[in-house]
Amino acid sequence: MNQIHSPTATDPTAAGRLPPLAALRAFEAAARYGSMTRAGEELGITQSAISHQIRNLEQSLGATLFRRNGRAIALTADGESLAAALATAFQDIRHAISQFARARQPETISIVMRPGLALRWFASRLHRFRERHPGYAVQVITVSSQIDLQRHEGADCAIQFGDGHWPRMEAVPFLHDTIFPVMSPKLMAGGGPKGQPADLSRLTLIHDDLAFGWRQWLAIAGISGIDAEAGLRASDDAMALQLAVDGNGVALGRSATAMDELAAGRLVAPFDLFMEPGWQHYIVSRSTDSRQPRLQAFRAWLLDEAAGFTPLGRGPSPLLPDRTPRLVSLGTQSPASVAGATSLS
Q1: In this predicted model, which residue has the larger pLDDT, 149 or 222?
Q2: DSSP 8-state code for residue 201
Q3: DSSP characters for 18-61?
Q4: Separation between Cα atoms, residue 8 and residue 53, nearest integer Å
Q5: Does the pLDDT value for residue 345 go beyond 90?
Q6: How confident is the model at residue 135, as a pLDDT?
Q7: Three-point CA angle 244, 127, 234, nearest 5°
Q8: Do residues 170 and 286 lie in contact, with contact meaning Cβ atoms separated by under 8 Å?
Q9: What is the pLDDT of residue 47?
Q10: Which residues pair with 139 in a beta bridge?
Q11: Start-end of H helices in 123-227
């Protein structure tokens, strides 16, 4: 028999009333950690206080949110549904408070990006933005892990390398890139490769944690017999390039981050084969923030800078004198699909 729920005076949903915020915060934290103890540590209250808040919330809603087995807890279907909604709501609240606080301070543009791009492309160009917009300050946040703008509530935007699809984000295509081996001139002169990618078998490969690495480059070169996972591992792309500059082996350079080192003679590109992923760098911002005047000004400047940038391998270049580069475009292929190919060259 169907039952019709009639809000009562004690029903928190009656007349738009909500359960106590403290109870919702306690539940959201416990759901996120899967632990009432850790939720209590985050909120500065005891585990028993968290448990009490959640039981009151369950009683208020007339629903069981956790299955309990001793100290272990697991979300019920109702709990999973409420936890997902609250996670988004609290994220939006934190972001709104951060934006409110920043609105009361001098205008600052905060951007998140990888260390390599920050140090070897962005930093040398930043003065031109400051000349164009002297009223804005700029904060640069570098992260060596995968960029997630949702974790940086105070950031206006990020520069991310990918296919352009990030949920709840607006992504503006910004900068194309190419990928190719680089090494120090000293290592090249002291027994480096003689123009054939197969010569890499005698050298140490340097790895970073970016997509489209050695496994993909060796695949398009049609090279087998080289362990694409062996060698040195750097914590990020900036460290990988520095290891190459210092003669520790061969790294994969990206045009955006390696061209200044090539122009200065600190690195050389020993081969004519260049890999061009279908992915590119995007200016990524929350859809709700994309019309902010400071973000629009910053994005326009970035696009102007990118308009004058040509990735290495796209035709003749003074950095490749008397050489004809061979560019292999990967189209929409993912890193995994390229790594599974035997040769795309």
Answers
A1: 222
A2: G
A3: ---HHHHHHHHHHHHHT-HHHHHHHHTS-HHHHHHHHHHHHHHH
A4: 21
A5: no
A6: 86
A7: 20
A8: yes
A9: 93
A10: 110
A11: 126-132, 185-189, 214-221
